[in-house]
């Protein structure tokens, strides 16, 4: 549905996006994941025609965006990251304006506007000026405006950034709901969001794609087999050393005290340590309080991925991707 | 076409949500009313030679100062404001061409500019109660206002497309308009007859004198319209140029 082929963009000699290619299939939600400044916004701006790529091609539903820019844009609904709406306009007025701008036929306009307002749960503020709305409402108004002309593809740039937790849940539910009728490309630097919302993930760092796959496969490919968290009653100073010697254990680390000993075990791929750990504890007369599998999260994948790249290319000076706050690092902006 | 009208409507209405519009509107009516009153007063004194009042109204120096200043202020926000706030991103990623965006914004500004002049239509109407008024030259004068307003606003739209800063847009636009205006005035300083004739075509004061006498010369209309198209073309190019960065 949406095809991005070898996109490249540099600003004043600095390469912001370097040879980025991916496809978004019909009816899927693709997560575009990367730390701040990785080139997500620049890529999305090239897809939506706000920026012209230096090289590469964007195809939307078979339409080449460079050759027929207006036709391509008509198939895309775009929610920019820095969402600036006209504060003086009323919500319904604005969505109507967008419908007229995007060439929705006059007889359908009213129905489409009502529909978009209802879909995004903003019909209750339809006659309020946009400037008086909270950020969460504005975000949903932006979403309503993006889908009022019924585009096949939705491009959402950090749709949940700056929202409070309840609003985030609402917007995520809404996005999952939109999947029924739209193909969605969604960018984020928040990892749980990808796991919760997306079917497939493209990870981008410093302008280059570093990994592609479903959240599941990425986790399996890029992390060791799941480990175990063990809690033993009382202080057992050498617990990690003893458990480390069990067959199949790659690494063991002891943490904390306070009446109990916690040991984190990392296992070899495919090894199940639970029985061995249990028997060891019984044999030594330890009281086992807890024995829990440790699922590697996408976060682990991410950190590992970036750490290997760091080792290869030297430090890039970017904050950890798990940081929820904006780090203010220089994401390329026009 | 529909997109053009949608942009026009939004731009026109947006003026009324900013205090600037009301300040301009008030200042405009105050100065124009004052000028009208001053001309009326001077014509009333017996030693003044008989002249057409409305013709004086459209030809005096205040008229030109105001035309230039007001059109710079009306045009300055057209593109700059949206580039500053970032709403230009949503606008330019809609399926409309940059030319349509510029044309819609320009026409929205022009509509507001003409709206400013609307109350002055009352002056000749009021005068007609006390004497006979020839409405032909007055209609031609308003055509002149619309044409020069369009010319100045087109230059202002171009200036606005160049920067995110509205103040800079206003200054650049004023300088461009002043340069256009002075090009005609400079004729008086030139001795070469060919150049004198060429600059004569650019002399806006003469253009307006003609309109105020009720003379609509198609050459003058063609000059203004082609200059408008030229400036709007430049503005469109300026807007497209931003796509590179």
Can you tag this structure with a few keywords?
heterodimer; A: 334 residues; alpha/beta; Rossmann fold; Alpha-Beta Plaits; four-stranded antiparallel β-sheet; 14 strands; 34% helix; 27% strand; disordered C terminus; B: 245 residues; mainly alpha; 0% strand; globular
Percent range for helical residues of chain B? Answer: over 70%
Instruction: Please outline the major beta sheet of chain A.
Output: 6 strands, mixed
Largest interface: A-B, 32 and 26 residues
- Sheet/helix structural class of chain A: alpha/beta
Q: Can you tell me the residue ranges of chain B where pLDDT is under 50 for at least 5 consecutive residues?
A: none
* Backbone shape of chain A: elongated
Helix content of chain A: 25-40%
Tally of separate domains of chain B:
1
Broad structural category of chain B? mainly alpha
Summed over residues and divided by their number, the pLDDT of chain B gives a mean of 88
Ranges of chain A where pLDDT stays below 50 over 5 or more residues in a row are 316-334
Globally, the shape of chain B reads globular
Based on the structure given, which CATH architecture of the domain at 2-75 and 151-221 in chain A is correct?
A: 3-Layer(aba) Sandwich
Strand content of chain B: under 5%
Distance between the termini of chain A: 27 Å
Secondary structure tally, helices of chain A = 11
CATH homologous superfamily classification of the domain at 2-75 and 151-221 in chain A: P-loop containing nucleotide triphosphate hydrolases
- Number of separate helices of chain B: 12
Mean pLDDT of chain A: 82
Order of helices and strands of chain A: EEEHEEHEHHHEHEHEEHEHEEHEH
């Amino acid at each position: 549905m949406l095809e991005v082929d070898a996109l490249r963009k540099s600003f004043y000699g600095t390469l912001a996006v370097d040879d980025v290619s991916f496809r978004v299939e019909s009816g899927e939600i693709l997560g575009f994941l990367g730390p701040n400044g990785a080139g997500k916004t620049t890529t999305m701006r090239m897809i939506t025609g706000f920026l012209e790529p230096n090289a590469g091609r964007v195809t939307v539903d078979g339409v080449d965006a460079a050759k027929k820019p207006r036709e391509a844009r008509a198939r895309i609904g775009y929610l920019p990251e820095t969402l600036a709406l006209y504060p003086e306009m009323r919500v319904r007025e604005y969505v109507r304006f967008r419908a007229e701008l995007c060439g929705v036929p006059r007889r359908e306009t009213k129905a489409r506007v009502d529909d978009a307002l209802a879909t995004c749960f903003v019909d209750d503020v339809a006659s309020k000026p946009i400037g008086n709305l909270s950020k969460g409402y504005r975000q949903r108004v932006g979403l309503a405006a993006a889908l009022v002309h019924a585009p096949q593809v939705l491009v959402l740039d950090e749709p949940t950034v700056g929202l409070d937790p309840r609003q985030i849940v609402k917007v995520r539910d809404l996005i999952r709901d939109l999947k029924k009728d739209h193909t969605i490309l969604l960018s984020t630097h928040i990892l749980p969001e990808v796991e919760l919302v997306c079917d497939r993930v493209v990870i981008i760092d410093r302008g280059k794609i570093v990994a592609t796959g479903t959240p599941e496969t990425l986790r399996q490919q890029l992390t060791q087999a799941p480990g175990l968290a063990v809690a033993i009653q009382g202080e057992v100073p050498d617990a990690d050393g003893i458990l480390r010697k069990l067959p199949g254990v790659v690494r063991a680390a002891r943490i904390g005290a306070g009446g109990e000993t916690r040991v984190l075990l990392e296992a070899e791929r495919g090894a199940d340590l639970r029985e061995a750990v249990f028997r060891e504890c019984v044999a030594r007369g330890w009281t086992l309080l807890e024995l829990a599998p440790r699922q590697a999260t996408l976060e682990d994948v991410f950190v590992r991925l970036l750490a290997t790249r760091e080792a290869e290319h030297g430090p890039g000076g970017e904050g950890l991707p798990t940081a929820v706050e904006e780090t203010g690092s220089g994401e390329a902006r026009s | 076409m529909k997109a053009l009208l949608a942009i026009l409507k939004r731009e026109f209405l947006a003026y009324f949500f900013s205090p600037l519009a009301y300040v301009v509107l008030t200042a405009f009516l105050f100065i124009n009313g004052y000028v009208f009153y001053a001309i009326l007063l001077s014509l009333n004194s017996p030693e003044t030679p008989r002249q057409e009042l409305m013709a004086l109204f459209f030809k005096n120096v205040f008229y030109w100062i105001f035309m230039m200043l007001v059109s710079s202020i009306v045009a300055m926000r057209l593109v700059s404001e949206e580039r500053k706030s970032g709403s230009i991103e949503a606008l330019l990623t809609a399926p409309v061409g940059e030319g349509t965006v510029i044309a819609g914004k320009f026409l929205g500004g022009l509509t507001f500019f003409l709206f400013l002049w609307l109350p002055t239509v009352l002056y000749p109407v009021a005068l007609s109660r006390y004497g006979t008024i020839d409405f032909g030259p007055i209609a031609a004068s308003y055509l002149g206002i619309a044409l020069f307003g369009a010319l100045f606003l087109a230059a202002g739209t171009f200036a606005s497309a160049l920067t995110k800063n509205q103040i800079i847009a206003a200054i650049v636009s004023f300088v461009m308009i002043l340069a256009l205006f002075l090009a005609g005035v400079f004729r008086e300083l030139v001795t070469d007859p060919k150049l004198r004739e060429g600059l004569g075509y650019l002399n806006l004061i003469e253009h307006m004198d003609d309109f105020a006498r009720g003379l609509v010369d198609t050459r003058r209309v063609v000059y203004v319209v082609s200059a408008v198209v030229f400036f709007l073309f430049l503005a469109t190019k300026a807007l497209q140029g931003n796509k590179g960065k």
